Structures are given as structure tokens and as C-alpha cells.
Amino acid sequence: MRYFLEQLRRKVQTGISYTLPVLIVGGVCGRAALWCEEPLREMLLQAARTCEWLVPAIFSAYTAYALAGRPAIAPGILAGWFAQQWGEGVLGALVGALLCAAAVKGLWYLPFPHDTGNIKSLLVLPCVATGGPMLALWILAPPVKGFLHAVGEGWGNAPQALPIICGSVIAGALSLDMGGDKGNWSSLIANLLLMQGVLWPTAAKIAGSIVPVLILALHQFITKKPGAFRLLVQGSCQITEGVLPYLHHGPQGLIPACMAGSAVAGALAVGGGVQCAVPHGGLFLLLFMEQPFCFLAALTAGSALGAVLLFAFQKLPLLACATTKKEKEKLPVEWVNF
Questions:
Q1: 170-201: pLDDT as tens digits
Q2: Is 40 among the domain residues?
Q3: Strand-pair partners of 275
Q4: In this structure, are 261 and 173 located in the same domain?
């Protein structure tokens, strides 16, 4: 079961990675429209609305493609488009992608003449695999819409501290294994919520991606070790993998300090009303954020706290390093935080 969930996460993350450019263009156009006059304003708003409508279709198409290959692209596009039309949103698009992939996988084993293999993959599978998932999505539309409505109502009546706690968890989890499986689950949740139009988890995710690098940059600068300026630039660009080389031979207690600092930054960002419709870009996104000064204050507080904790951990001789030698060998050497 764990292996299945991990493989499913990887496939869904593939679909999200193809959808991110559309989200970024839509978010930038929507924010830039506020600074423009007609007719450019209307053109930018139309581009933003178009990107918003395309997101479920692109996400569903490429998730289905990751699961079942090229024949699932066309059914996936239609599944995502009709999920948007029927009010099922990203959840319906995800269900549609899974149904389309299952249909293509199941139909792939149908006997077919060997010399007509292209007809099978280009004509038969895309056409036949479209009907069943479309019917299933149409049947599931009322319960899915009801579920989304109930979640929205419940979230609206939830305590005000709940988003702050969730923002702290999202940001802190990104530093748990610096881009491993646990951190990618947090990023996956934030990206799915962004595609559904919920913007504050993205602010927490961006803060959690920047703060670990800034903490290490502060440590390197204060201890007069090389690499502080490079880390500062990487942190400003939301390149969290700048921390990875230091996990093997870096300061003791780096991961716990980064988790604490990121959690505080995420909580302060969400509590300060920071929202961002663009999922990636680091400090270059300040122009496209609501409450950008609160975001900078959250980064400053989280980075300062993390640096203080990092120096405090250096004074604890009994504290073991955050990862054992065996765990270090499993740490990823390459990672892109989406």
C-alpha cells in the first residue's frame, strides 16, 4: 500500500509539474492586470481566466499520461475540462485522470492484429477510454460538488487558528527531509489547493522553501565560512537544494533548526494574510503577493529563529546529528521544489 501511494504521488506530481507554468502565467497576468489600464487590463484578465479554466484539463491530461502513456492524454483532457464544467474542480480532474488511466490500462490488453498497433494506440484506445470515464464523472458530479461544498462550509466555520497551524505544518514539513518524500507530500498538497483557488498554502510553501537556505546563509556569514552569498542568492530564488551539500558535512542540528524556522515563518505568513497565486519564484513574487511586507517579516523572523537554534544546537555536545550516517546515504542529491 505504501509503495502504491508513493508511485501515485509521483504520477500526480508529474501532472502538477506540467500544470505549474499555466498557474504561473495565470497568476502573473491576473496580478499585472491591476496595474494596467484598458484595453490591456481586460486582455490580461481574460488570459488569467483562460489559464484558470485550462488548469484542470492540463492537470488531468498529464496525470493520465504519467499513469498510462500517450493514449490517455485525450481522455484526460476531456475529463479535466468536463470536471471544471460540472463544478468538480481539481478533485474531479484527479478522479477523471485515474479513471482514464485505468480504462487505457485495461483496454491495452485487448487482442489486436499486430500490424495495426498504431491504430490501437492512436484511435481505438483514446476513443473507447473516453466514454466510460465521462459517464462516471457525470454520475459522480453531485456527490463531488456536495463534498467540496461541505469542506468549504466546514473550513469557513473553523477556528481562525486552524489555517495558521496548517501553514506552519506545510512550511515545516518541507524541511523534514529537504526535498524527500515527506517534503514533497507537503508541496503536493499546497499545489493541489492552489489549483482549486486556495492561495494561502502557497505562501506557506514558498516561505518554507526559502527559510532553510537563509538560515544556513546566516550561519555561514556569522561564522565567516564561505558560501554565504551564494546561499543568499539561492534562497532568494527559492532554490532549496542549496542546503543539500551541507547535510552531509554541515553544522549539527541543521534539519531541526530549519524545521522550526520554516514552521514559524509559515505560521506568520498565513497569520499575516499573505496570499500568492504564483507557485514558484522566491522573492521575485513579492510584486504578486498580498501583504508582501508581512511575508518579508515572516521570513526574517523564521530565519533569525532558525539561526539562533542552529547556534544553540552547536553547544549541545550530546545532541546527535539530525541524520544518521545510514540516513545521509539515502538523501537525494538532486531535487527541484515544485
A1: 898 888 777 666 777 788 888 888 888 888 88
A2: yes
A3: 290
A4: yes
